[in-house]
Amino acid sequence: MTKYAFVTGANKGIGYEAVRQLAEKDYHVFLGARNPELGEKAIESLGLPNVSLVLVDISNAESIQEAFKQIQEVTDHLDLLINNAGIAVDFNIKPSKLKVEALRQGFDVNFFGTFQMIQSFLPLVQKAARGKIVNLTTDMASQTMFDNGEAGPLNLLGYNSSKTAVNSLTLAFSKEFGENGPEIFGVTPGFTTTDLNGNAPGGKTPAEGAEIIVDYALSETNYHGKILNKNGIIPW
Ligand SMILES: NC(=O)c1ccc[n+]([C@@H]2O[C@H](COP(=O)([O-])OP(=O)(O)OC[C@H]3O[C@@H](n4cnc5c(N)ncnc54)[C@H](OP(=O)(O)O)[C@@H]3O)[C@@H](O)[C@H]2O)c1
């Protein structure tokens, strides 16, 4: 039976490379993009027959419903939902200088968007033999690692707290799903040089970042209810 994966925010960066890697493993991959032109461009540059474009703006409930309908016309099950779409709008802004609008903007996409994606696509993921939901997170969202200095020097209240909230929903959904599935877990690729961080030098390439996500997504090991970096489980 064909395996299906949906990766949001996949017209560039880590998501784009995750699509390529999953397609090379014979998944039929839905490449999520909010901008039609950027989505088409990504599809063309990949040039893979088993990748198709699905327009989705995860901050817009109607757009999520349209994406659901489109995917449901192709398949009755979704083996992998990779909630990769995300934004960081507060690089170089101290918490005391952060505008509440920016804080809301980050939560709107990273937290509320991911939440609505999970709720909407759950019926399709539940129909897969071993459905999995993977939420992108960051070690800066681990309160333990941020507090003890293991997550680096950045103090991005907006981005980090929205991803801490994503961790919280990962845990909450995992408790609801229990042993019966689907599996849900969070993964951080670690510092990866992409548009998200203004292409800051010294990070992994998007392909290297994506490999960490895809390895966990395809792993035989069950990581239900955990958050992970490339070395394994990280603390909340
Ligand atoms: N880069 C890192 O060091 C790093 C580290 C840890 C975690 N992460 C996480 O990895 C994920 C991918 O990030 P990246 O580094 O690859 O960033 P990126 O290159 O900026 O890509 C982000 C993607 O998300 C899309 N997106 C943004 N808002 C959206 C919305 N409302 N609806 C749908 N798509 C939306 C963007 O679309 P547009 O092109 O239209 O803007 C783009 O395709 C994010 O969740 C990020 O938090 C990244």
UniProtKB/TrEMBL annotation:
GO terms for biological process: secondary metabolic process. InterPro entries: Fungal_SecMetab_SDRs, NAD(P)-bd_dom_sf, SDR_fam. It holds the Pfam family adh_short. GO terms for cellular component: cytoplasm. Coiled coil: none annotated. GO terms for molecular function: oxidoreductase activity. Signal peptide: none annotated. Belongs to the short-chain dehydrogenases/reductases (SDR) family. This is NAD(P)-dependent dehydrogenase (Short-subunit alcohol dehydrogenase family). It comes from Falsibacillus pallidus.
